[in-house]
Amino acid sequence: MEIYAEKIIENWKWLKKKEIVKFVDVNPTCIDKYVDTLKTLPKKQVYWDFENIHPKDDFAFARFAIITSAINFCYMDLQKPEQAFTIKESETSYKGAMAMFRCFFRTFGEKNITSKNLKKVFCSQDATKEFFTGVVQIPMLEYRHWIIQELITVLDEKFNGDPINLYEDSNWDALLLLDKLIQYFPMSFQDISHIYTTQKTLQFPFFKKAKLAILLYQGRSSKTNSQLKPLSNFNEIIAVEDYRVPQYLNSVGVLNYQDDLKKIIEKQQIILPHQQMEIEIRAATTVANSLILEKLNSGLKADDSRYWSIANLDAHEWFGAQSVDFPHHITPTTAY
């Protein structure tokens, strides 16, 4: 398990011991039932090769994964949460992350995304606004613009302008890549929350977008005849703490929400980033997925066909959440 997840779980246990956890509970009985159900299902494997959304060329996609993950956050209209960033082309509509992916694909297609062509496209905030033009506009546009400027600058200064060099410099190791994304691109990939108590300050290093980039790459590398080699140490990653996964885990009883939190989510009221209830939702997701993967893979080696990676589990939960009636929590954040 990667060190950041270990820290989250360690701090969650301390909060539970001190009875400071207020809003979310992890239900071990439901985890056992959930795991039993998962064992009867085929593993969900997503290659991130959706038509007209992702590049077919594997190395173009590897670059695409890092760039798009940096701005993969918060698509809801915060005034009208039922609406999300949407673009429409002919008879096809794209929403949320798929709309963001489509914006990149319709501009870059199968080209390698580098700092050089990013500079041309995102030369001003007006240009960034035009790039993301939709029938429902993308929120937090300025943040996305400045994150892309950071990507351009750091790629130029440290990686010869090419995202593929991040993989090379990390020796195609998931944990080294995670650390490089966090270290060199703080605006893009830093994602740490804190809970302050009278005894100590607890740190929750989630780094969702950095782990998402790794997950996307690994998914494509798993495709038959992929030109990409799988990242080593990928199975050390156990959770990608966004808003969809806890929505799904709550729907199957693995996460239980306290009544006040449940009402806030049901009414689609905003939960501010770094509030304790938001941190608890995300930390509980890490704790739950850690236990789920541990039970799913007990006695199995990673090359066993029955072994579940976070890529399989996250896909099951993220796509499963699309059909859950109870809403997800809403937080205006650049973290997820």
Automatic annotation (TrEMBL):
The keyword Repressor does not apply. GO terms for molecular function: hydrolase activity. Keywords: Hydrolase. It catalyses: queuosine 5'-phosphate + H2O = queuine + D-ribose 5-phosphate. It comes from the Bacteria. This is Queuosine 5'-phosphate N-glycosylase/hydrolase. One of its GO terms (biological process) is tRNA modification. InterPro entries: Q_salvage. It comes from Uabimicrobium amorphum. The keyword Hydrolase applies. Belongs to the QNG1 protein family. It holds the Pfam family Q_salvage.
